[in-house]
Structures are given as C-alpha cells and as structure tokens.
Known about the structure:
371 residues, alpha/beta, TIM Barrel, five-stranded parallel beta sheet, 11 helices, 16% strand, binds zinc ion
Amino acid sequence: MMSWTLGFEDGAGPRWMRGREATVFAEKGIGPCGRPVAWRTGPGPVAVAVSEESGRLQAGFDVGEALDVLLSERYRRPAKPITRLLPFHYHRVPGALRFRIGQLLSAGRRSRFPRWPIDPSGDALRWLSGRREVRWPGGKAFALVLTHDVDSAEGMARASRMFDIEAAAGLPAVYGFVTSTYEIDRGLARAVQALGGEIAWHSDLHDNRIAFEEDDAIRRRIEGARGFLEEFNVTGFRSPSLYRTPALFRVLAERFRWDSSVPDTGPGGGCASVVPFRLGRLLELPLSMPQDADLLFRRRSWQEIVEAWLEKVRYIREVGGLAVLNTHPEPHFSGSSAGLEAYGEFLVRVRELDPWIAVPRGMPMQRGEVA
Ligand SMILES: [Zn+2]
C-alpha cells in the first residue's frame, strides 16, 4: 500500500506534532491552494497536503479513510507466529530461553512504520479530521489503565505481589487470565474486583493460535471459558502475544465489549494512535505503553524502563489520550523483585502527572458519553 510522510507547518498543527512526522497511507496528497497547514514531505517533491481557507481545512487526500486504514491496520498483513510451527506448546521452552529468543527477534526488528516508541500518525489524522479531544472524567488531561497478562502458573503465583502494590495505593487494575492452563487464584480475582478492578480473558491457551482459527473454532474456545466469563462478569479480551485478525475481532464482538490487543506501535504493526476507538462493535483500547517484555528484550535496565514509561506517558498526556500499560507478573518479566520495585516507582511518579486512573468498564466511550 502506498504511503508518504506528512509534516505540519510551524505553528499550524497540534503542539505534540512539533518535530514529528506522520505516515499517511493514501493516494495523491497534493492539497488545494490556501494557507498551508501540513506538507507532504516525501517521497517525491514537497507539496502542500492540507491547507486552510476561511477557517476550513482542505486536504488533498481522504483523511477519514487514511485514519481508518491505520486504526483497522489494513496496511499490514497479519503475521502468523513462528511458534505455531512448534510440535509442542512453546511455553514448554524454558522462560529464560524464550527470553533470549525474544531478544534476538527484537534486535532484528526495525520498521519505518510504525515508529517506536512513538508514532503520532493516527492521532495527527484524527486532529485533521476535527476530532481533537477526549473529555476525561474530572477534567483530567489524560487517562491511565493498568493491565496485567497472567500468562502461566509462575505468573499466577506472583500476581498477588503486584496486586499488593496496587492495593497499598488504592489503584484499580485489569488482570487477564488464561483459563485452561493453570488454576486461577479466585481469591485474588475477587480482591481485584473489590478494589474496583476488572478481570479480562487472555484466551484459554497461550498458544498464539486463536486469531488464525475459523470463526466457529474461535466461538468454541470462547464457549469453553463461559463459566469463568460469567463468574467474573468478563467483558474484555487481550490476545496472547497480541496476535490479531479481522476475523478474531468480528467473533469477539459477539461476546465482548472491549479489546486491548492492538498496540499503537508494534510488535507486529499498530494503529499509531493513543486514543480509544471503535473497532466494529468493540471498543478498542490501544496498548499504548511499551510492554515490560519489549523493553527487556531491547536490553533496557529497570531504571531505564521506568523512564521510558514516563516519557511515553508525558507524550500521551499532551495528546490527551489513554495510557494502557501491560506488565506481566511472570518471574522473567515484571514479577522479579527488581521488576516489582520498578512498577511501584512508576506508580508513584505517574500519579504526579495527575491521570484519571480507571478500568475499561468506566471508560466514557463505553458509556456512550464520547463518540
Ligand atoms: Zn500473554
């Protein structure tokens, strides 16, 4: 699919686009006459892409369509995981070795789009389309959702340490459980809910396959988890390893209200937006913060990870978006002593930036208050 780069005229775009460029998947992009607002800066000759005439923006391309291409990730072909080819469940590879494999895969991954760790393309297009801000409750500038994917029995065993940190601060969080792999700590799940948190489904098996199955096979897997989904009033989903397809979202919408499997920028594509949006009937809460696993694979220290999280939060605050953080209580990720300490430090420092901290159930879009 054809793409080109868009940059704003000095002082014409949103403040958070200063020094940044957006990637636009659209034909042409040469705008009409008027005061320049944004430029097509390449490939090919530089030209005005958006101009303003009598207070109205005029674009040389279909802004709504270009935004939709990003939010639906239609620019990419969903990559099938290499773990599907293993003749056994990939979690049988020891965690430390899987970690090393993750590091190697991460080192080979360099993409022009989406840019990491910030790609403003979707939000720049949203701004151009006139949808400029979300009104968060309490007049807050941005929102924060804390999530944890509990991938394995080891993660389940350590999840309560993560919860203790949140409980001490009185912060609600989302815990996503894999339902056919380990014994779910129901006491912990109820404590999470009692603190105002939410339980989500992280599939029945962490086999990275659900996104690639036929509709009926996906339905059978959801049906198999029905007891859990009903017991904990589960309305949200995150796909194992973020593998996602249009078919998966279509079937999920039959049973779930929200999903958080689409990152804003990688791994495996991204919507390049830090603002929630509708994906068919689902409310999509883009996973807008770098995951603990990704940062560790990039060989960041825990102190660097805290700083990377805060840097991204400051950007999301400027945009007025939603920071969705996913930390894994697995011992080789955030469940280590150093990881838990870093998470605790992040919680203290992020609250100084005054976010609205909530769970998906309370999102204004969920209640129909914001389109
Ligand atoms: Zn997972």
